[in-house]
Amino acid sequence: MPAPSVTPDWAFEREHWRRGHFRVAGVDEAGRGAWAGPVTVAAVILPGTAQDYPFRDSKQLSAAQREEYAAEVRRVAVTWAVEHAWPQEIDRLNILGATHAAALRALARLSPAPQALVTDYLRLRVDIPISAPPKADALSYSVAAASLLAKTERDRLMLELDAQHPGYGFAGHKGYGAPAHRAALRDLGVSGAHRRSYAPIRALLDDPDGLPRLL
């Protein structure tokens, strides 16, 4: 596949290092826009040595590359954690609130604890310094590392949901609004893996004629 157009670096981390905050956690999520399955958030502290890594925004990589690099993240990280917010929590809190809640759970599991954060435009309420630039998963090694863990772990869970809820094609579209997913919803109705607060799902629930069967 073509080489990524943007290579991450340590610019955001260095700003925190200059202030004496050497344990900088990168935070990223996967699955915010999906109609089904969890939103998954990863937090990673890489060694503060400013070395180059092959890590990239997970969207720039093939599935095989993501798996390879995620294994490397787990090998080299000082500490890492992955947490999920499932559809029930998303429906209760809304997607942003659920993403924040999962991020805070992941950060609480890091040991040693982070002294600063870099996130992909996720403005968490924390009592440590935070940088939240847009597209940080393509710009920061720490956030790219988190994106790899979040994406690969969520993809694994969507394979499990595919087995639990056959017919929806979760293994392929990962819960996003692909044509095959729309067709399956028309044929099968809404499953327990779906986010009922999302407009397309809510519309089906509100229209009995559009729901042949509610699972």
From TrEMBL:
One of its GO terms (cellular component) is ribonuclease H2 complex. Transmembrane segments: none annotated. Its EC number is 3.1.26.4. The keyword Chloroplast does not apply. It is found in: Cytoplasm. A divalent metal cation binds at residues 28-29, 120. Keywords: Cytoplasm, Endonuclease, Hydrolase, Manganese, Metal-binding, Nuclease. Residues 22-210 form the RNase H type-2 domain. Manganese or magnesium. Binds 1 divalent metal ion per monomer in the absence of substrate. May bind a second metal ion after substrate binding. It catalyses: Endonucleolytic cleavage to 5'-phosphomonoester. InterPro entries: RNase_HII, RNase_HII/HIII, RNase_HII/HIII_dom, RNaseH-like_sf, RNaseH_sf. It is an enzyme of class 3 (hydrolase). Belongs to the RNase HII family. Endonuclease that specifically degrades the RNA of RNA-DNA hybrids. This is Ribonuclease. The lineage of its organism: Bacteria, Thermotogati, Deinococcota, Deinococci, Deinococcales.
